[in-house]
Structure formats: C-alpha cells, structure tokens
Design goal:
CATH architecture of the largest domain: 3-Layer(aba) Sandwich
Oligomer: single chain
CATH superfamily of the largest domain: P-loop containing nucleotide triphosphate hydrolases
Helix content: 40-55%
CATH topology of the largest domain: Rossmann fold
Distance between the termini: 75 Å
Strand order of the largest sheet: 2-3-6-1-7
Length: 352
Amino acid sequence: MTDAKTLLQQEITDLKAKVTAVKLPDEMALKVAKELVALERSIELGNYDEKYEKVSRYVDWILKIPWITETQDTLDIKHTLEVFDSHHFGMQEVKDRFLEYVSVLNLRASEGPNSEFRAPILLLVGLVGTGKTTFAYSLAEALNRKLVRIPFGGLASAKELRGSSRLLLGAEPGRVIKGICEAGVRNPVILLDEIDRATDEANMDIMGVLVELLDPAQNNAFVDTFIDFPVDLSHAIFIATANNTTKVATAVLDRMEKITMPSYTDYEKIVIAQKYILPKLLADAGLKPNQFIIEEAVWAKIVRPLGFDAGIRTLQRTLQGAVRKAARIIVERGFTEVYITVENSKIFLPAY
C-alpha cells in the first residue's frame, strides 16, 4: 500500500512540476493549485483514478493555452501587396480594402502596446469559389501571423465552439480554444469560415457565441466551458466568410465590416488558371510545363463548360482531370508531351 501511495504522490508531483514550469495568470495558477490539493485528498477517499484522469487532462489543456505568447506583426504595406498579388489576380477593390486595413494596423501599432485599438472584423461575402478563404490565408501570411480556421459547415451545437463541462469524462475545450492552442499564440488570424452554414437547430445558440467572440467588450474574457476561466482573445484578428447573410444574426452583422466578393470574369479566370492553378497542378503531377500545352481556343470551353460560374472551383476540377489524363497518356504511350486542341478536347474535358 505504501508503494502504491508513493506512486500516486509521484504522479501529483509530476503534475505540479508541469504547472510550475509554465507562467500562468495568478488566478489560474491558484485555481490549478486547488485542483491539485483536491487530487491529493482523493487518495484517501479511493476515487483517485477517475479524479486524476480529469485533473491531468484539465491541466494539460491549461498548459497548452498561449496566455501571453504572441508573434510580431509584419506591417509593411509593400510586402502585403506582394503577398496578395502572389495569391490573387484581379479583385482590386478587395485588395485595396485589405491594404487599407493593414495601413490602419500600422498606424495604430505606432501608438504603442497600450493602445486600446481593436482590429476591425471583416466579413467576406460571396459565391462559392470566389476566394474568400484564400484572402484570410493571405492576410495571415502578410502579417506573419498564425492562422486558425474554424469551419462552421454543419456545426451542430454551440458546444463545439465553447466546449463541454470538464466534469464529463473525455470532455475537451471548444474549437476556439483548441485553435489558439494549436497555433501556440494568442494573436492569430482566426478565420470563422462559412458562418451561414451551421445547422438550423443550433444556429441561434451559435450566433450567441459569435456575438461574444466578435464583441471587443467581451472577447477579452472569453469563457470556454471546459477551461472555466476567462481567456483573452482581444489580440486575435477575426475574419468571417459567408455565401450570403440570410442566416447570420443582425447582432453578429453589426459587429463586422462587410466586403462583397465580386465574381470573376472569363478573362480573370483564364489568367488565374494559367498563372496560379495550372503550374501547381503540373508540379503535383510531376509534369513539366512544356509537357502539357492547351491551345488558346480551348480556354473558353474550360472556363465556361456550363455557362456562367462565379468562382474557380469547377475550373480547378476541370484542369485537375485534364492533367491526370495527360499524365496517364504520357506514361502509358510514351509521349513526351500532350497538346490539347479544340479537336481533341473531348478526351480531356468532362462531358456534361
């Protein structure tokens, strides 16, 4: 019995060492200390195993939270423009809005760390495939910030955002806290992706959590149910996307600046395909640019197979299929290159 008790005490000592090695907010450190004292008492009451599982799991998550760790922003407007141009063709009005956004961040940052400024929350609204999500990734890259993506598609409960009670065995924090833990910093770009696609049954509760997340007066003390302690999210930059705003609560919309994503023209799609999409697809397939050539007259059929399409996802899938077919032909028949013309395009393009 003495050996068993010594082993239990060693487990608690190891937990204490983990806690001591990390700088926690004073009240959080006190809260964890009380948990460890209660754990020590549980040895005598005979429910140590279950108690240890819950406390150790809780402590592990507490230690993962980046309470003070941040990345240093890169607020160079020229660098920002280069990043956006490297990922996006056209969309100049949207780019201009992001450049204005970074310019404001730059000026407010010069006021020093004690500035009360909170970055505006942007809502990108547009049809599928118009680049909403990619713009968020580009902003994170331009600012040298980590990116946390929280997809709302099919989100069935507000608990998925806010977490579950840690009294339940196997409970975990919600996606927000998990996201900043994975990023390892408290000031990432948090992408709330497709906020209009949560399930109808949970939409009202989810909108309630969003109001708290997006309100500067509240998100400096966001309380996840599992963590049960305020976490400061005010240093993060929030960006949301939506296909439309019909299901988005007015209180949520009031806390964001809406940017409408325009549809791509046929010309823009062709340039995007030639400059951004196709080179990556060829590299992924192990093909060189001179092994896969598309006749100019074919591009009209590629970008508009079924009439007008606002985005580029269909275009990307079409090119993926053509590249795969070309790779097979080169390998099976020993060709050195594949040249797609109007006459042979049916071999490479999908039949609708």
